[in-house]
Fold these 2 entries.
Entry 1:
Amino acid sequence: MRGEREVAGLRCGEVLERLDAYLDGALEVPARERLEAHVRGCDQCARFGGVYAATVRALRGRLGAAEELPGEVAARLDAALRTLP
């Protein structure tokens, strides 16, 4: 990521990787707090995170709640995604 900074022990790319988990409420408390501290100290991530969060909220509002995948399907999908470059 161009212009990447390290703030609160996280680099901008790491924040980007964890942003969806953050918005889903899936981060453990220490990880969530580090991500929030990074965003408070990084204007670039604050701007992007705000736009990204607003987009996700708008999509969720339009599409409604996601259906839960059966465990086996979720595991296969996760395994397949991990093989991607």
Note: The two ends are 17 Å apart (CA to CA).
Entry 2:
Amino acid sequence: MCLAIPGKIVEVVDRENSIAKVDVGGVRRNVNIGMLDDVAVGDYVLIHVGFAMSKVDEKEAEETLRLLRDLGSYEEELKQFETTVQ
């Protein structure tokens, strides 16, 4: 099962190609932010298959991660996030 998982933008690594580095539970990956307008370092986004799909507030991001942990889904999604090719 694939879920959108919240991550925090920690760096815009390539503005021209809309690539940002996000942190998800301590794992940092590059994702495409080109589908979103007006995102910046410090913003939280929902990530699915390497793309930031929507912007969310910090409280919503933390609540989503908590729910995923409680459901037992978070660890598998995080593992997939860690092992996908950058």
Note: The first strand starts at residue 5 and ends at 14.
